[in-house]
């Protein structure tokens, strides 16, 4: 497989197909990053699309001083930051009204029962809610470390902050997350009709 | 309570072996740190259950007119079965489009049109237009060279279609002047021809590219909609069936 650096070099030489190979290779991680930071599917798609457009237009200025992926991550995070500023919201994760049991069961693996699936889905939603409550910089540090496997140093470079700050943000973010997750109650394992499966709603009873 | 940075390094396995062993020994004797490490590990485990949606993305950069670029969606970002169906349709559509190519050369330039909904009048191919233009250019060039040769030889009487020896030269100075003017006219004419031809070729290329991309985009979008709709229906039916089966099984 041709590595990113080679594809970047070809793209800089005007080869559009090479750049589109990079797009194909990175569109999912970039979308996932945008989605987890801003929490909205359609907006995350827009951010991902804009990331690649900007990257293509700025390709002449990319001298390979960082990994191509890091450069893409930086563009994405800048766009997410702009989006968050525009939205001016503190609670930015989508809060689903309920879970559609039919839609949900379509995602089941062969060994998973409906109950398992509901439980896993609810846990994921509870995590999304808890993450949305974190300050942006803590959330971003956790996302880059947990879901994109960046090193502490790569995160520090990306966020333009000292290494110690990255670790502090991770510690604080994980601590708050742990607290929130401990407060989220264990769900009953029985299935219920659509619209009544919200794990957080259940915690108020 | 120990250093938080150290704790994070330990949590992510980024301590050197000796430091890690030292931290392990510390944990054995410090209940607070032990609890904290366990709690943070639990939070990390929870994080793995948060999966983003997996929409059809299929981004790709396409060149627009001039130097502009835009984003499009890959039409082949479909499941294999639908991808094959889309490819088959596309081959048919492209064949139909090729069969209905219309190339028009007019005072406004050359235009190429393709389409599924047009009934095209007997068409001239781009190659034929090209050949006709070249022949006309060659004929004109021959005539001009002939004129130039005659003038250089001192003959000044011209007819519209050829140069014939005729009246005597009245002045060598006026001949030279005439020759200079004719040469200038030839140069200007060639320049205009070349520029005009290049512009027309560019326009043809650009129009054809835009039309092709638009058509492909439309096909891709339509196939995407059909695929999504059919797949959703299938999934829902299957899931409902599984669910009913499961409930019936549980009731028994």
The number of helical segments of chain A is 10
The tally of domains of chain B stands at 2
Give the tally of β-strands of chain A: 0
Count of β-strands of chain B? 4
Biggest pleated sheet of chain B: 2 strands, antiparallel
Q: Structural class of chain A, please?
A: mainly alpha
Strand content of chain B: 5-15%
- How would you spell out the order of helices and strands of chain B? HHHEEHEEHH
The CATH superfamily of the largest domain in chain A bears the name Winged helix-like DNA-binding domain superfamily/Winged helix DNA-binding domain
Ranges of chain A where pLDDT stays below 50 over 5 or more residues in a row are 90-108, 186-205
Global Rg of chain A: 19 Å
Sequence stretches where pLDDT stays below 50 over 5 or more residues of chain B:
76-82, 114-126, 155-170
Strand order, main sheet of chain B: write it out.
Answer: 1-2
List keywords for this structure.
heterodimer; A: 205 residues; mainly alpha; Rna Polymerase Sigma Factor, Chain: A; Arc Repressor Mutant, subunit A; 2 domains; 10 helices; 0% strand; disordered C terminus; B: 252 residues; two-stranded antiparallel ribbon; 65% helix
Quick take:
Helix content of chain A is 67%, strand content 0%.
Write up what this structure looks like.
The complex is a heterodimer of chains A (205) and B (252). Chain A has 205 residues and is an all-alpha fold. Chain A has two domains: 4-87, Rna Polymerase Sigma Factor, Chain: A (Orthogonal Bundle), CATH 1.10.1740; 101-203, Arc Repressor Mutant, subunit A (Orthogonal Bundle), CATH 1.10.10.10. In chain A, 67% of the residues lie in helices and 0% in strands. Chain A is built from ten helices and no strands. In chain A, helix 1 (4-12) crosses helix 2 and helix 2 (16-38) packs antiparallel against helix 3. With 252 residues, chain B is mainly alpha-helical. Chain B folds into two domains: 4-47, no CATH class; 59-230, no CATH class. In chain B, 65% of the residues lie in helices and 8% in strands. Chain B has six helices and four strands; from the N terminus they run αααββαββαα. A two-stranded antiparallel sheet of chain B has the order 1-2. In chain B, strands 3-4 form a two-stranded antiparallel ribbon. Mean pLDDT of chain B is 72; it is low at 76-82, 114-126 and 155-170. Classes of the chains: A mainly alpha (205), B mainly alpha (252).
């Amino acid at each position: 497989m041709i590595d990113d650096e080679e594809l970047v070099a070809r793209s800089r030489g005007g080869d559009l197909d090479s750049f589109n190979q990079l797009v194909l290779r990175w569109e999912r991680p970039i979308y996932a990053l945008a989605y987890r930071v801003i929490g909205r599917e359609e907006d995350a798609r827009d951010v991902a699309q804009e990331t690649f457009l900007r990257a293509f237009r700025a390709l002449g200025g990319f001298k390979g001083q960082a990994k191509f992926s890091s450069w893409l991550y930086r563009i994405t995070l800048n766009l997410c930051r702009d989006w968050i500023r525009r939205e001016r919201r503190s609670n930015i994760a989508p809060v689903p009204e309920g879970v559609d049991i039919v839609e949900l069961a379509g995602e089941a693996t062969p060994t998973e029962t409906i109950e398992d699936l509901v439980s896993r889905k609810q846990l994921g939603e509870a995590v999304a809610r808890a993450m949305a409550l974190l300050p942006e910089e803590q959330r971003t540090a956790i996302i880059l470390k947990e879901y994109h496997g960046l090193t502490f140093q790569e995160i520090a470079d990306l966020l333009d902050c000292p290494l110690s700050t990255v670790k502090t943000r991770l510690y604080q973010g994980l601590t708050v997350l742990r607290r929130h997750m401990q407060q989220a109650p264990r769900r009953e394992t029985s299935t219920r009709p659509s619209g009544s499966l919200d794990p957080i709603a259940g915690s108020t009873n | 309570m120990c250093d938080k940075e150290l704790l994070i390094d330990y949590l992510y396995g980024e301590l050197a072996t000796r430091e890690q062993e030292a931290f392990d020994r510390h944990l054995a004797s410090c209940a607070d740190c032990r609890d904290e490490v366990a709690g943070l590990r639990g939070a990390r485990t929870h994080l793995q259950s948060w999966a983003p949606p997996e929409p059809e993305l299929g981004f790709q950069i396409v060149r627009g007119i001039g130097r502009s670029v835009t984003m499009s969606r890959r039409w082949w970002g479909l499941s294999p079965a639908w991808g094959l169906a889309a490819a088959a349709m596309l081959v048919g559509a492209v064949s139909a489009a090729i069969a209905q190519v219309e190339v028009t050369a007019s005072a406004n330039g050359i235009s190429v049109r393709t389409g599924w909904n047009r009934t095209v009048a007997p068409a001239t191919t781009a190659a034929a237009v090209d050949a006709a233009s070249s022949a006309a250019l060659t004929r004109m060039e021959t005539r001009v060279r002939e004129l130039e040769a005659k003038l250089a030889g001192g003959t000044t009487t011209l007819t519209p279609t050829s140069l014939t020896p005729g009246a005597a030269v009245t002045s060598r100075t006026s001949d030279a002047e005439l020759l200079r003017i004719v040469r200038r006219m030839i140069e200007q004419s060639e320049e205009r021809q070349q520029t005009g031809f290049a512009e027309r070729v560019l326009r043809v290329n650009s129009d054809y590219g835009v039309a092709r991309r638009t058509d492909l985009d439309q096909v891709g979008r339509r196939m995407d909609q059909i695929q999504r709709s059919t797949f959703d229906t299938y999934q829902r039916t299957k899931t409902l069936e599984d669910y009913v089966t499961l409930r019936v099984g549980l009731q028994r």
